[in-house]
Write a structure and sequence with these properties.
914 residues; three-stranded antiparallel β-sheet; TTC27/Emw1; TPR-like_helical_dom_sf; repeat; Tetratricopeptide repeat-containing protein; TPR repeat
Amino acid sequence: MELLLHTHVLLASDKAVLAGLEGKAAPEATFASQLLGGNNDAVAQDTLVQLGQKIDASAAESPEALVGLTREFLAAHFGPASGNSQGLFLAIALLQCFIQNNCTGPAIETDILDLVYAVSSAEEKTRLQSLLVQSLTILGQPAYELMASPECLVLSLLLLELLTMSQSLFGDNIAEDIAAPEFPEGASGLVAVANWWRARALLAHLSVVPEPSGNQPAVAAGIMSSVNIAQAIANQLPAEVGDDLKRRLFTIYYLENAKVSLAINTEHLCLPALTKAKKLTEFQFVLTGARARRTKFQQTGHSGLIILAASAQADEAASAPSQNPEAFQLESDLLLEKPVFDAIGAEPLDEQIVKRQKVDPDAEVNQGIDEDRLLPMALRQEYIPQVLQALDPNEQPALNNLDVVQLLLRLYVIRQTSPAKDPLVEEELGSIVSRVIYQHGHANWSLFSRALWERSILETNKAKTVERGLLQMQSLVEELALKIQTRLIPQNADADENDGSHSSAPRLKYIHQLPFIPRWELDASLAEKYMSLGVLRSAVEIYDRLHMVCEAALCYAAVGDEKEGEAILVKRISECPSDARALSILGDIRQDPALWEKSWAVGKYVNAKNSLARYYYRPPKDSGLTLNYDVVLGHLNDSLRQYPLSFDTWYFYGCVALECEKLGVAAEAFSRCVSLDETHSMAWSNLSAAYIRQDKLKEAFSCLKRAVGFDAQKNWRIWENFMIVSFRLQEWNDVLTACKQLVGIKRDKQGEGSVDLPVVEKLVELLVSTEYKEDSAAQDYFQRTCIEFVCVTLPTVITTSARLWKLVAKAELWRRRPWAALECHERAYRATLHNPAMETEEPAWDETVDACEDLVAAYESLGEREGRHGPGSVVCRDWKYKARSTVKALMSKGRGRWDGSAGWERLMEARSAI
């Protein structure tokens, strides 16, 4: 029964599911009911008051000492030996209180610090809060000093460490490798629940520091890396539990798996988890095009993107009434509030066919929709599933909230994996948020407000909507009601305090499936927008109010006022000498290695080591230093030992190792890169380069196949390496594919220089060594593709190369097309004849004579063969006349300059032999 209660709390089920259980499993059911109802502070207060004791922290002078005292207190009352089963409920309640106070609002009224610590004065309370904030520092990155209720997060983290019997992540003496928990078959479901909550708490911890670092990301990812954690819970649930609860459990797991990847900057690992969540909920959605009117004056629609989406399952009843934030109107005299779409497929089918993009039929799956894309796309009307075709694009139904979460997570993945401010990407993101905002029916507060926030981010990038975007951002910051001292937007005086808008339950319901955005991060994003628009003063005022010293300094540095940025950082360092991030940023502005070294000594701040590595890799000219690979690799190694999840650092590490011929190190570095982002084509290519230099051709070939598979930008260097390695391994199909790609990529700039002659010669040699089959269906891939490449593609590229024309002639003769082969010999001769060097250089003259002799021989051997029109026709009836004319014309051109030369004598012999 306890596991079932914890499962409902984990999944934020509707409070009504616990009806009738409170009397049977008290007090656990009472706690569960209170947590699901949003009364998290009540659970924490009841549990802590029952202890009847408080921590005397008056002697604690350091964060480490305070954490030690707190851990001992919690271990005595909630540790494995205490027999108290309320520890997990308390940890959950404290975490939810912290999130409520800092991310969702409204703020709780209970003072948790007074319930845990013996506080004698306001000064003592401030000192304890400062120590608690300092204890949340991760590798030199101080936690946000103005966060609310830091004691809630610290207590929750410590409790969850005790309950899961895990190694502590507090303090500086952190082990470099911490094993992630395992959940084999038969593992305790309650232990799995505790670890799941610990992963959530670690993500909350990461949200209070500027960048993910330390062991917290690896531990959180390790906990959520295997579906066994959800399986362990599902296996031990009571038999009467239906499949719906288990399906929701696994869906929530996959969504949070994707969230963890986003939080620790490994967003390329999100797609498999999101795909599985989509299948579990049977969610159908597709990105397609439709005509839309965007202004009040448009009479006809213009092309636009739209998300058609429908949920297979209705959402469960809302746990509490919720008044969503106000969606500000555009109030534009030109733009419509939202686009008005024509009916999907209203365009005649024949027009769709004319405008259809060229798509490889072999790449189309599921009737034209690729389900493995972040946004499955339907290029034509008939590819859209029937359920979605029936939707009115302007009145789409409300989605299940878990399906809304899926769309929002896909939005974040697309944003983090796409170029910034790309117009097409922004159109895709806009179609996602529009589908969430403009749906009809119930909308959860957190999901709706998050969609509004993302729409605002997009709108501030456009001149016509920037005003509403900024106004909406300001409104959402103030909507949290978290100690905002000044309000730019007045509240409705008639708002009823009991209207549900201040209920915490709906705000917390899906917060663990969405990336955490604390209130100060919202404010900082608003400041960034002001800075991007040139409103520097407003941006700095926000940073000053938030006490974000480093961000304010970076703001000044970004606009060229580096002296002011330095002054702010110097003042911060004098007040807080242990702020490693401030030291490192000051070092970046001054380019001073001593500051980076000090930052590393103070807090093991990994960016300081990265800056040192780049400094010594390309030292300034006036520094007197020279490039020292060992020093650079040493700094990068120190950085990676502290934070091994940084793709950029691994990539730089591998490039430096490759440059100084430390091939084993380079291979390891790029292997780590592709494990973090398997879609990075250059990482695969560089890994192959390390293997090539070690003569590990098979491994290099495997890496290059992955590289070209992910090479969306068509990098010719990757394809050239792929061709060379394939050639050495005699993988002729791949050689041919690479050769074709290289010609396609480079032909516009290099023309026939895009063709690798020795490779094409080998391909043609292999082609003509096989038996020619008239029926194309009977030809294998190599024959069919090579014929197309040599006989169709190459003639459109060749301009001056006689060798290439002769190769085409060879292939045409093999195809039993002697007339085409003769044409190629004629073109080869003309290409040589037009060489200006022929008139001044004898080698060029001799080369032209050779080509003439080859053409004469071709006339003689091919002229009387059966022509293109079948029996009765010949290739060239007057071949003797043409051969004689060719020789005479060349002799006329060389007369007076090349008389008596060896080439001239050969021409004389050829003329007499015809």
